[in-house]
């Protein structure tokens, strides 16, 4: 991350704390709400303090421009745990540098966050997945990161973590176990999955050839967020639970040929009896998110009830 942002973290943290009562001066858990998942914040304890701060008012924050991303930082209690909700996130495709996209994650670390629950709406690559499934992320493939778009590029911020942080354990296994315990208690086994999330820069959806490449690489779902936030969080020593709501099937069969229609050549064998695949659109993403909103709220609350003890604290000041 660029040194350009280094002097601003403490200023942002101090400003946020100036808006909070004593019980929310330090938060322990953060939840990043993906497209259409802003309803997760409705799970907070109704009888405790709640602070809502628009991103546009927070010093050095960007603003979210995407439909389904309201753009508020909400500090409240969930199951009596001081929690920060990012209701909407920033994306590289909005024109933000990744240093700015992941800036809130480092602010959250300085606010005391030791556990991050990051959610997203994602397209299903795995043939077994259907819209409405909920996937615990066990690994990710950052296509943009492999191409040089990593939020840690630039001078290392030693106060957060080492120059070369490991990502082979990016998604905490104990938190994933907690996810599936919550799933079992709520009777959601039929829609629960566990798989690998692929991060692409967007904002265009994938071509069929690109989708096939991701499938061959082991991807189960694909989206335009999450991986940069997870990299920044793990660099700061924050443990991560990633949850993808599968909102659509990603078309990945070869694009149908048309040459035979004109030249009379044989139809390629792979295309015979091939059913048409639906084109992806953002409205579909929001519709499925709305359909699963209440269940996801219940799942997040149950996860909070079952959370394992936090890791030993490590100061980032």
TrEMBL record:
GO biological process, one term: nucleoside metabolic process
Domain Nucleoside phosphorylase: 29-301
Any one annotated GO CC term: cytoplasm
UniProt pathway: Purine metabolism; purine nucleoside salvage
Annotated keywords: Glycosyltransferase, Transferase
Taxonomy, superkingdom: Eukaryota
Binding-site residues, phosphate: 35, 69, 89-91, 121, 225
InterPro entries in alphabetical order: Nucleoside_phosphorylase_d, Nucleoside_phosphorylase_sf, Purine_phosphorylase
Xref: Gene3D superfamilies: Nucleoside phosphorylase domain (3.40.50.1580)
Residue ranges crossing the lipid bilayer per the database entry: none
Protein's UniProt keywords contain Glycosyltransferase: yes
CDD domains with a match to the protein in the record: PNP-EcPNPII_like
Key word Transferase present: yes
Residues that bind a purine D-ribonucleoside: 206, 248
Record GO terms (molecular function): purine-nucleoside phosphorylase activity
EC numbers: 2.4.2.1
Reported function: The purine nucleoside phosphorylases catalyze the phosphorolytic breakdown of the N-glycosidic bond in the beta-(deoxy)ribonucleoside molecules, with the formation of the corresponding free purine bases and pentose-1-phosphate.
Protein name as catalogued: Purine nucleoside phosphorylase
